[in-house]
Amino acid sequence: MEEEFIENRAASVPFAGILTDLLTANLTQRPEKRVVYDNMHGTVAIELVDIETAVTMVFAAGKLRIEEGIVGRPEIVIRTDSERVMDLNALRIVGGLPWYFDEAGRRVLNHLVSGRLKIEGLFTHPVLLTQLTKIMSVM
Amino acid sequence: MVKYNAMTQEWLDAWKQKIANSKEYREIAKNWEGSVSMIVNPDPEKGIPEPIYLFTDYWHGDVRDFLICDKAKAESANFVMSADFARWKQVAKKEVDSTKALMQGKLKLKGDLTYVVRNIKTVNKVIDLLCEIETIWPDEA
Questions:
Q1: Shortest Cα distance, chain B CAs vs residue A82, angstroms
Q2: Whole-structure pTM value
Q3: Is A77's pLDDT higher than 70?
Q4: Looking at beta carbons, which residues of chain A come within 8 Å of B118?
Q5: Which chain A residue lies closest to B99 (C-alpha atoms)?
Q6: CATH architecture type of domain B3-136
């Protein structure tokens, strides 16, 4: 895989490094996720509220730039705690869609219902959110 | 209850025994294969004058070598975690969540993160069992 397909401009933010490592491994090991990634366009921010850390991921057809903080006007903003963000990576993809009917899925739904996980753009940008879930899922 | 000096072979043996005795661990970890080393960065003020290297090895619900080792052995593990002594102590006392420490960069991990996330229950169970060991910490002794 080419070296520059993820540009981490937030190298001083440990969470950005984790995202970079996780996505690099996932996209390298799973060609079907790379196909999804190559078709992604849009901006997603993730804010870890408890540790006051945020990064913005700008997807542009097979390229990803990670910026420190919330930059611009992301279509999707995910806000949760550092201890829960990995739960999003545990979602299974079934029939091309995130699966919310197993333990991992129910945990994410519980976070949403309880307000421990907030997703701006959940209903307005479902395609981008589904694509993001697919490439982030390690299952 | 017996207490063990932190980060010694006796402490590792007690941890290994805890894991080996856990039916829950055996079930959760049935898919895990691979070694994990922990590097404790030196902190002379806390009684850690030199780095400490710990090597632990897990295989489909079984536990294999749990050793105090040298740097080369530690770095040969499938997963290498490193942190300051104070951070390891907080993790072992459940004062900080290991995922949170990872996100903050206070705990560093080398290895396939996707594998760790897929098996996060195993990781959490191993840490839970570590937390059950009565430990004498060098900065408290």
A1: 5
A2: 0.89
A3: yes
A4: 90, 138-139
A5: A83
A6: 2-Layer Sandwich (3.30)
Beta-carbon neighbour count of residue B106 at 10 Å?
A: 18
| CB nearest to B114's CB, from A14, A51, A138 | A138
Closest-CA distance of chain A to residue B100, Å: 5
Q: In chain B, which residues have their Cβ closer than 8 Å to the Cβ of A27?
A: none
Measure the CA–CA gap between B105 and B87, rounded to whole angstroms: 11
First to last CA, chain A: 21
How many pairs of residues across A and B have Cβ atoms under 8 Å apart?
Answer: 48
Decide if A18 and B103 are in contact by the 8 Å CB cutoff.
yes
pLDDT tens digit sequence for B27-69 = 999 999 999 999 999 999 988 999 999 999 999 999 999 999 9
Beta bridge partners of A78: A46, A119
Residue A99, Cβ density class (10 Å: 0-12 exposed, 13-18 middle, ≥19 buried): middle
A69/A61 Cα distance (integer angstroms) = 22
- DSSP E strands in chain B: the ranges are 4-5, 33-41, 52-59, 62-69, 79-84, 107-110, 135-136
Would you give the DSSP letter of residue A13?
A: S
- Nearest in space to A84 (alpha carbons), one of A46, A122, A57: A46
Cα-based torsion angle of the residue sequence B88, B89, B91, B95 in order, rounded to the nearest 10 degrees: -150
**CB within 8 Å of B132: residues ≥ 6 apart:** B18
Question: A11 and chain B: CB distance < 8 Å anywhere?
Answer: no
What is the nearest CA distance from A113 to chain B, expressed in angstroms?
Answer: 22
Between CA B93 and CA B13 the distance in angstroms is: 18
Measured distance CA(A15)–CA(A84) in Å, rounded = 13
**Sequence ranges of the domains in chain B:** 3-136
